[in-house]
């Protein structure tokens, strides 16, 4: 059976050429998705810092606490990774060499923002989460300036 599966694959080689999404850029870019994800990081960080472990040895209370804590951490880490993904798309796909004339610190701005995403994944640090929001806001303003617009920075929370 394995031989027939392998033969089927080999018989269909070479594979047909296909086009991925980025082979034909849609031109639809917006830092809003990075902002929403970064806001979730900040929100979960605050919730984690406000969470108090139960007193005593009540197993049900500890189970509830551990479940809530682990869910908040999972969301925080997932959204930090999502923020990084969205920022890297903007950095590598949208911003072009000609934008360096207007924003000579563009590479450092994005690099630091990506590093903040990593810091937010591995720590429960409200200062880092707030710095991430500030970095995303800076990128937001850079992005809209390249479009000749000055869209307001509006957060959901």
Structure characterization notes:
By secondary structure, this protein is mainly α. The chain has a single domain, classed as Up-down Bundle (Four Helix Bundle (Hemerythrin (Met), subunit A)). It is built from five helices and no strands. It has helices spanning 2-11, 32-50, 59-94, 106-122, 126-146. The radius of gyration is 22 Å and the shape is flat. 21% of the residues are buried. The model is unreliable at 18-23 (pLDDT under 50).
Short description:
Helix content is 66%, strand content 0%. It has helices at 2-11, 32-50, 59-94, 106-122, 126-146.
Supply database-style keywords:
66% helix; Four Helix Bundle (Hemerythrin (Met), subunit A); 157 residues; flat; mainly alpha
Layout of secondary structure:
Blueprint: H1 2-11, H2 32-50, H3 59-94, H4 106-122, H5 126-146
Helix pairs in contact: 2-3, 2-5, 3-4, 4-5
Unreliable segments (pLDDT under 50, ≥5 consecutive)?
A: 18-23
Rg calc: 22 Å
Structural class comes to mainly alpha
The geometry reads as: flat
Cα-to-Cα separation, first versus last residue: 56 Å
Helix content: 55-70%
- Kindly report the average pLDDT value: 90
CATH class: Mainly Alpha
CATH architecture: Up-down Bundle
Beta-strand residue fraction: under 5%
| SS summary, helix count | 5
CATH superfamily: Nickel-containing superoxide dismutase
What oligomeric state do the depicted chains represent? Answer: single chain
CATH topology: Four Helix Bundle (Hemerythrin (Met), subunit A)
Name the helix and strand elements from N-terminus to C-terminus, one letter apiece.
HHHHH
- Report on the biggest sheet: none
């Amino acid at each position: 059976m394995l031989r027939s599966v392998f033969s089927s694959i080999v018989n269909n080689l070479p594979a047909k050429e296909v086009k991925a999404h980025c082979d034909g850029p849609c031109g639809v870019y917006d830092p809003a998705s990075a902002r929403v994800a970064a806001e979730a990081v900040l929100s979960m960080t605050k919730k984690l810092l406000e969470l108090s472990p139960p007193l005593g040895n009540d197993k049900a209370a500890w189970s509830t606490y551990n479940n809530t804590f682990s869910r908040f951490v999972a969301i925080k880490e997932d959204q930090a990774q999502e923020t990084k993904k969205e920022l890297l798309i903007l950095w590598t796909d949208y911003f072009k060499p000609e934008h360096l004339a207007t924003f000579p610190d563009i590479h450092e701005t994005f690099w630091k923002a990506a590093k903040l995403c990593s810091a937010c994944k591995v720590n429960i640090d409200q200062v880092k989460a707030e710095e991430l929001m500030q970095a995303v806001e800076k990128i937001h303003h850079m992005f809209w300036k390249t479009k000749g617009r000055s869209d307001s920075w509006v957060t959901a929370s």
